[in-house]
Amino acid sequence: MGSQYDITCPECGYRQRLHLGVGMAYTSIEAVIDLVPHALREPVLQAIQQNPAGVGDFRHALYCCSDCQRRAGRFYFQVTDAGGRVIEPEYHCSRCRCTLTREAEADAPDLDDAPQDWPCPECGHQGLHSALTVLWD
User: Fold this and answer.
1) What is the pLDDT of residues 79-112, one digit of tens each?
2) Strand 129-136, strand 100-102: pairing
3) Cβ atoms of 5 and 20 closer than 8 Å
4) How far is residue 10 from each of residues 28, 58, 112, 122, 123, measured CA to CA in Å?
5) In Å, what is the CA distance from 80 to each residue of 16, 64, 93, 104?
């Protein structure tokens, strides 16, 4: 099941909405191929055709920009082709264009306490608040 979190800063009023996890339509990566970045769709489909067992994890995961500290929920996937090449997405920050890094705690999409350790990307205040607002399928 997917989760929607609203992240807020008590100091400056910064707000962000994050979508994490998977829904009921996520039965296979082919079923949600529209979520794969356009440039990777064909290589992903070819890799799956060559190596059906090479499909790894896929879900909306938590990413962070190491430059401006902005968090983002992006569609993560891992597919290995017949030659052993691993295909994963690379995303860039919508604000500063730096490469986003997938966060380890994204493996457990529970953000009830995690934002308390995050600095606000607008004012730098340490200790954002989060609220689980929607469970989606």
Assistant:
1) 999 999 999 999 999 999 999 999 875 444 567 6
2) unpaired
3) yes
4) 39, 33, 16, 12, 10
5) 33, 24, 25, 20
| Confidence (pTM) | 0.89
What DSSP letter does each residue of 30-94 carry, written as one string? GGGGGGS-HHHHHHHHHHHHH-GGGEEEEEEEEEEETTT--EEEEEEEEEE-TTS-EE----B-T
Contacts of 80 (CB under 8 A, 6+ apart): 47, 51, 54, 56, 86, 87
Q: In what order do the strands lie in the sheet with 86-87?
A: 86-87, 71-80, 55-65, 100-102
CB crowding 53-63: b at 16 or more within 10 Å, else e: ebbeebbbbbb
| Total number of residues shown for the chain | 137
